[in-house]
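To whoever is on call:

I kicked off a structure prediction for a single chain this morning and the downstream step that reads the tokens threw a length-mismatch warning. I double-checked the sequence; it's 294 residues and nothing unusual in it as far as I can see. Pasting both halves so you can look.
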Amino acid sequence: MFVPVINIAQVLSKMTNENDIIDHEFILKARQLKSSILKNAILIHQILSEIQPFKVTTYEIERSVKTLDRVSTNFEYYSKKVNRISVYMPSNLPLYSFILFGIIPSFMVYEKLIVKPNQLMRDKNIFGRICQALNIETEFQNIEIVYDETQKFTDVYVPNSDIVIFTGYNKNRDKILSLLKPGSLLIYNGSGHNPIVVGKNANIEKAAKDACYARFFNSGQDCAGPDAILVHKDIVDKFMNNYLSEVNMLKVGTYDNENVDVGPIPRKTELQKFLNLLHDTDTNKIIAGGVIGK
């Protein structure tokens, strides 16, 4: 059960400026969207089961509800608006990402917030079905969903945007920067190694458990997952034993199974990377898995 941090009546009682109506509207919209998400939770699980584990969708719904519940705590930031925002959506966690990068920024737009889903979400129409289930087109009329390829979206929408929210590679970021008009803002969410460091005095059991969770969250597809785990040499063997025990307890299967931790890789480009890695890696360095399934 999630309890709003600030009751809507409390918020409105403190707001006496010309933005009262606007602020009231965004709080109501957040509450309505929260209700719609909870009402359509089963459908959302069904849609997202094509690309991610059931547990991850549950996580997304919980985080989305918490965010919408607490949107009123930031009402002072919604008084200043811009005409247009363009958003490149991340490849993972489509519902929660849309709340963070689409819904919340839409409260700060006069004209349009234009959203470009990534290729996987376009190809499988994941994003479109989520928006349809939540009635986004009707409830958020200042949000426009565009299914253009990255290059076309960049050329058409970036030059006229006051703010661009981009998640992706550096080479695409540089192209966006070159097209931004003077005075506009680029909010860039890049990628990194995000290493986990396990010190000599760490609680090894907890460190191994948490490292396994972080690395295999969302079947290991999440861009925030660690690309490296750095362990003190004095405890590396014990850590690895605990880590492998955690890995071996992960449930592998299809995403329609609610208990599955790791499922099929939906993006062909990522699958090819893994196949190349297995092909090129010394087999002696593979200490778990490494078998290409049917």
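Update from on-call: the warning came from a stale cache, not from the record. Cleared it. Sanity check on the structure: The chain has a mean pLDDT of 87.
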